[in-house]
Design goal:
single chain; 253 residues; globular; alpha+beta; Pdz3 Domain; 3 domains; 6-stranded antiparallel sheet
């Protein structure tokens, strides 16, 4: 047996000869868990990750666009082990990680409660961390992050095709963020800009640039200058929308 049927492609309820199956080795693991526990159990690392695109790789000074880039680390196994936003996961349990899909698969297949070695690239240096995996089913929670339209900002600055305002308590409240939050709020965007094409919208919050926190327009201007001085074509930004963070690389040329 090389696979088990899971579904068929059928526009009218009958078979047209096209079906989908699950690999037998995956089914075997599920059956073993059902026999032992009466349910399936998947490993949980506790990170939000994204693939490394060529422009993100250039902005980070990487030789190749591979690995899994950590955009957020909520409470969980990864945070307890010291993994940080901006870390690039290059190896999991002794196996090279080429992209997010591979990492997700390897984590899900790992035993709950097992301690595994995770290699990350942080500020150009490789670090190995020991992470005790949790259980994904127990960790899954409803995402309550909602996007909101920010109120008008008193002071604005245009950079990278974005109209930006430094975070205030009023802006934070309008975005559903706690008082004292920091970052640069996108209050407007040029729809012909690279930023718009890469999905940035009004209400997004820039919290990091060049893998350093930004709280003022001056901080962002400094990161742009540093990227240019280093000969880089783009700058890596950490964008938060509601509860969802992601990295975006924008050209500084």
């Amino acid at each position: 047996v090389i696979g088990v049927n899971t579904a068929i492609l059928s526009p009218n309820g009958g078979s047209i000869g096209i079906g989908f199956s699950m690999a037998s080795n995956v089914v075997s693991r599920v059956v073993d868990q059902l026999r032992q526990f009466g349910e399936t159990r998947r490993g949980w690392l506790g990170v939000r990750i994204q693939d490394v695109t060529p422009d993100v790789a250039e902005a980070m000074g990487l030789a190749a666009a591979k690995g899994a880039l950590v955009s957020d680390v909520p409470d969980g196994p990864a945070k307890d082990a010291g993994i940080l936003p901006g870390d690039l996961i290059t190896s999991f349990d002794g196996a090279e990680v080429s992209d997010t899909r591979e990492l997700v698969r390897r984590v899900a297949e790992a035993d709950v409660g097992r301690a595994v070695r995770v290699v990350v690239l942080r500020e150009g240096k490789s670090e190995t961390l020991l992470v005790t995996l949790g259980r994904r089913e127990a960790a899954e929670a409803e995402d309550t992050g909602d996007s909101a339209t920010p109120p008008a900002a008193p002071v604005e600055k245009e950079l990278l095709g974005l109209t930006l305002s430094e975070m205030t308590d009023d802006l934070a409240s309008g975005l559903g963020l706690p008082a004292g939050s920091t970052g640069l709020v996108v209050t407007g965007i040029d729809e012909t800009s690279e930023a718009y094409g890469k999905g940035l919208r009004s209400g997004d919050v820039i919290t990091e640039a060049g893998q350093q926190a930004v709280a003022t327009v001056g901080d962002l201007e400094a990161r742009i200058s540093e990227a240019k001085d280093a000969g880089r074509k783009s700058l890596l930004l950490l964008i938060r929308r509601g509860g969802d963070p992601r990295f975006v690389a924008l050209s500084v040329e």
